[in-house]
Amino acid sequence: MPAKHHRPLWLIPNLLSLDAPLVAVSWLYIFAKTWRVQYLPWVAYASLGLVVWVIYVTDRLLDASMQGAIVGKLEARHEFHRRHQRRFRRVAVMASALALLFVIKGMPVSIYGYAIAGGMLIAGFFALSIFSTQGPDDIPYAKNVLAGLAFAYGTAMIAFVFTGFDWWELLQSRELICFAVLCVLNISAIDLWEHANRSSDPEAKATDELSLTLPLTLLGGASLVFALQDHELTTRPFFYAILTGAALLHVLNRVRARLQMDALRVLADVALLVPFIVFSAASRS
What we know:
Oligomer: single chain
Shape: globular
Number of strands: 0
Mean pLDDT: 89
Radius of gyration: 19 Å
């Protein structure tokens, strides 16, 4: 009889789709502190975490159903969601209702206007997921861009709605733009690494590595410049956090051949959680 397969403990948050909500809540705190939000209620963190969790669970259930004809080819997180899809659906419905209750009861009315743009990004993301005709070896750049923009905008929006500034100022903020780029690169990294693993062409592998190395270098350079330009030190810890995330993704991109894909997925999320520690330390100093 084959030995029972046990999932490592470090993979459990990824299997349960808890990694993305944790990243979102951490960066919500970073945005709130950077923009000097005097008071951010706990329902803001709770509603954001629940909404992000529901979106990720829905996406993985959708991917599992579309690829479920060949169960052996499903990735670990998709196979886990397929196997427990009834439980995930029930909990996702309850989480959606609870998040809606939190928003109605504890968030300012102005958030509904901000949410329109976020809803459009999410709708576009799921439309591409359902109707995209890309092949198995194609990298879904458009889907990744929409996912990164939606994640970054939704996270920053929750904090920005408590600042009292105009919506256009949010879209023009360096903080949102840099975080959005970091999120897009973080999501694209997984697809690029998987594509490089499947390919036996050295040129294709080099192209995939450069597709991450170049934008990560530009993002790191831009965040460093923005940090040094802030003589009042109000946003410098934020851009140090962005620089840290870009640097960690760059390191993972360089050592990816030594790690399994499941480990890379988890470490890609860790690369967006470590900046929280850097931000906290830089803010205190």
